[in-house]
Amino acid sequence: MQINLLHRNLPTTKQDYLKKESSSINPVYTSVRNDCFSRSSSYSNITFGELNSPEKIQQEDPELIKELHNAIDEIEKSILNTDFNSPDFKFGLPIDNNGKIKIQENKELENNLNTIIKIIPEFKDSVGNKQNPTHKYTRDIHILSVLQEVIKNENYEKLPANDKKIAKLFALMHDIEKEKEHVDPTHPLKSSLKADTILQRLNFPSEDRIKIVNLIRNHHWLAELNSVEYPDINSKALEFSRIGNFDIVKIFSEADLRSITDNFFDYKFETSRYSNREALRVFSEEILKRIKTIR
User: Is the Cβ–Cβ distance between 165 and 126 less than 8 Å?
Assistant: First the structure.
């Protein structure tokens, strides 16, 4: 069944969106959320965006936080010309006997990544992890490829400085919690929960933290909207109205699709309405229309 989103009535107020969101809860998201929460009792009775009380999380050393920010700034240049299709990265990032990343051809990137892992050790869990057969990269290399594609995007340079930092952290942590070798529909939510804890530990401003966490939670938005079983676009528009700059979403989504496998950006599944490239164009336009009615 072909559903023409372009001719659906647009809600005109935030109350209309909230009513729509509460009356037609996405069953896919609900099952993912419930499945994720059932696996860990520590996630029960929480309000999203306020998952952990900051005073209960030990704050990282301010000097280390400064070191992390410097590494995230510097990685823009160090990662840009790295060839992740090189045999050196076939099984993930090279690690020496001391647990340090070793990249012989790019010492700047090596230093940046070792700094990031020192301060965000959760990232190390992704190193060398095989993914489901659709992916050509291990999880760590996929994450870095997404980061690289974000930075290469011509629209990235147009972002304000703080949005660039948000985009890079979004890319670095979007798959920070994910099952090995299998399709894991719960991973956007699980990764967002872990990212929330990390960002609180790193004393990130609440506004930026909540933006990044919401971006991670919703990073499979395009696949959901492109499925014939998920015609509702209003709840996603409401979610993205809370993160400010939708350009971050568009830049990341293209980067993520380009980092799955060759030609995946132009691929169309039998159960999808559009190819991934066309879906990004169509649904981005529709999301932006609806965001304007909320503001």
Answer: no
